[in-house]
Amino acid sequence: MPRSVNSVASRARRKKVMKQAKGFFGRRKNVWTVAKNAVEKAMVYAYRDRKQKKRNFRALWIMRINAGARLHGMSYSQFMGKVKGANIELNRKVLADLAMNHPEVFTAIVNQVK
Asked: Is 3.40.50.300 the CATH number for 9-113?
């Protein structure tokens, strides 16, 4: 009996990967073996960086809060300790936004926790 190969499924699988490689540079966009490796690597980076994005934003918020707190003579850790002690339930994202875009509100929070 002759060998049967499901070329429809194979073609669909390749087509899916090639579609994901659209926009890549050079042979990565149109050569199957190169594109397959490039897409696999891209998926690894995408998975990893979804986690890293959260870390990066938290670090950015901490820097902004620290800069705002130091304008009022406090360090970041002192400020956050006093915020927790005063039972102010604002997260770092909101505090960073206030420090950056609404300094008068941030000043009011600093005065409340001092």
From this structure: no
